[in-house]
Amino acid sequence: MTVLERPATSLLPEPEPYRVLGTSAEPEPGLWTRLYRELVRGRRFNEQTTALTRQGRLAVYPSSTGQEACQVGAALSLGPRDWLFPSYRDTLAAVARGLDPVAALGLLRGDWHTGYDPRAHRIAPLCTPLATQLPHAVGLARAARLRGDDTVALALVGDGGTSEGDFHEALNFAAVWRAPVVFLVQNNRYAISVPLSRQTAAPSIAHKGVGYGMPGRLVDGMDAPAVHRVLTEALARARAGEGPTLVEARTYRFDAHTNADDAGRYREEAEVADWRARDPLTLLGSELRARGLLTGDVEEEAAQAAERLAAGLRAALGADPPLSAADLFAHVYASPTPQLREQAASLAEVTR
Questions:
Q1: Of 213, 240, 218, 214, the residue nearest 230 (C-alpha)
Q2: Per-residue pLDDT tens for 53-93?
Q3: Whether pTM exceeds 0.90
């Protein structure tokens, strides 16, 4: 059973998540090892960023450790003209798409900049409010269709975000307009501390696509090749004018919701241990070794690339950013008010 074998007209998701690893599926040349490299780099990114947060170099960090297969699979499925609409936990997806890791952390550092130019990278600003990026993704996709270009938007959201009105509004408009947009729900079982069972009584989040008139797909979010394959198919469907798709990836965050959260208050260590046994990095590495596709050289190269990324983060975030007090008055109004001009002049006088 695979997602790709289902009839194009079917809206109901498969009863079990689609998997590639552990089946007879043939690996795509070069793709699986590229996914592995990005998973190694992504794991180190999460580890180093978490450590820097504990050192006070970031205001907060929502780790995606355990969810790397979703993040990497999503980034690598996009074409150069496509847009990524991330949530606050999707810094790794932005990095895997090619964004500078330091720039990806600008918002979480407390910088007043987004940290990067969204248009240059085709990555929308990291979105902290839940699900508000989804209507934006639909709007961009709708505009692309009206222009007649082949751009597709991929919008990422967590299971908690599916309880927000923005989620429902976005899916409804996307289906009505047949907008070229794909929604990826990373179902990590908890909206901070609220388990999925207290958010919805539906058989799966993917089933919700039926109510909006779009296909729902269910995929193993710990299986990087499976995530990549399902999203690639959904993006191709959108690009061909066949409308949006709702994809639910069943995954798990190994760490707490953020560094400010105590996950031990709402989940048992035994549950975490069960999911750690399905670590996406371990699963893909084991499969590659069993097929003779993961050599010592590949592992060493991946590890070295990950350490270079970590060293770059330490160097950049270990230094205090250059700050100007005058920035307090910039970008508040298009034309500064008399009061702001007076305050800016007073500050300039005392800081000479």
A1: 218
A2: 999 999 999 999 999 999 999 999 999 999 999 999 999 99
A3: yes
Alpha-carbon distance 75 to 73, whole Å? 6
Domain positions in the chain: 3-321, 324-352
Is the CATH number 3.40.50.970 carried by domain 3-321? yes
Could you tell me which of 67, 66, 104, 65 has the C-alpha nearest to residue 84?
Answer: 104
Catalytic (active site) residue 168: no
Task: Kindly give the parts of the chain with pLDDT less than 70.
Answer: 1-9
Neighbouring C-beta atoms of residue 252, cutoff 10 Å:
23
Neighbours of 199 (CB within 10 A): 16
Catalytic, 18? Answer no
Catalytic residue from among 121, 207, 266, 278: 266
Q: To 10 degrees, what angle do helices 280-290 and 224-239 make?
A: 100
Question: Is 253 in the active site?
Answer: yes
Among the residues of 86-189, which ranges form H helices?
91-96, 101-104, 106-109, 118-121, 133-147, 165-177
User: Of residues 19, 41, 109, 253, which has the active-site annotation?
Assistant: 253
Element holding 35 (H helix, E strand) = helix 31-54
Dihedral (CA of 327, 332, 337, 339) sign: negative
Q: Is 286 exposed, middle or buried (0-12, 13-18, 19+ CB in 10 A)?
A: middle
Distances (CA, A) of 41 to 18, 76, 81, 303, 318: 25, 14, 24, 7, 20
Integer Cα distance of 2 and 97 in angstroms: 26
Report d(CA 161, CA 186) in Å as an integer: 10
Q: Which of 37, 43, 228, 257 is catalytic?
A: 257
Length of the chain: 352
